[in-house]
Design goal:
This protein has about 160 residues and is of the alpha+beta class. It has a single domain, classed as 60s Ribosomal Protein L30, Chain: A (2-Layer Sandwich), CATH 3.30.1330.50. Helix content is about 30%, strand content about 25%. It is built from five helices and six strands, in the order E-E-E-H-H-H-E-H-E-H-E. A four-stranded mixed β-sheet has the order 1-6-4-5. A two-stranded antiparallel sheet has the order 2-3. Strand 2 (about 20-25) and strand 3 (about 25) form a beta hairpin. The termini are close together. The structure holds zinc ion (ZN). Zinc ion binds near residues 8, 36, 42 and 45.
């Protein structure tokens, strides 16, 4: 068995840019989206880094460089499928994953089950083996000021 952790941060885009907020592959209604080269799905980016870390495969910056126009506006759920294919080729399967959003708003609770149902199948998991949660930073720091969102993820993988 191997464990991996991931961490990611994206700043909020100017609301005038009209970017959607995408978290765990789901569009979350909010007055602004996150800035980034891809869809800026900060939770999936942390999750992919955790998976790559557990498998000893580096990080998403190596696999999907943000200088590559191929990944402009990329759907991070598609990138997650590619990460899972890489792990699968090496015989790894996911045991469980725990993903935490860090920020004041939006509230995650109304979307939590949809996120689990959306992403668990990509990981080859039942929804109950993919935990999705959120915390604030008590209005402290950049997440507390609403300048952006952060996410952390931990995964366990094994190969029989
Ligand atoms: Zn990211």
């Amino acid at each position: 068995m191997r464990i991996g952790q991931g961490f990611d941060v994206h700043r909020f885009a100017d609301p005038a840019e009209g970017r959607p907020l995408v978290l765990m592959g789901c569009a979350v209604p909010h007055d602004r989206g996150l800035a980034g080269h891809s869809d800026a799905d900060v939770m999936l980016h942390a999750l992919m880094d955790a998976l790559l870390g557990a498998a000893g495969l580096g990080d998403i910056g190596q696999h999907f460089p943000d200088t590559d126009p191929a990944y402009k506006g990329a759907d991070s759920a598609r990138l997650l499928e590619r990460v899972m294919a890489d792990l699968g080729q090496r015989g790894w399967r996911v045991v469980n994953a725990d993903v935490c959003l860090i920020g004041e708003r939006p509230k995650l609770a109304p979307h939590r089950e949809a996120m689990r149902r959306r992403i668990a199948p990509i990981l080859g998991l039942a929804p109950e083996d993919l935990n999705v949660k959120a915390t604030t930073t008590e209005k402290l720091g950049f997440t507390g000021r609403g300048e952006g969102l952060a996410a952390q993820a931990v995964v366990l993988i094994d190969r029989g």
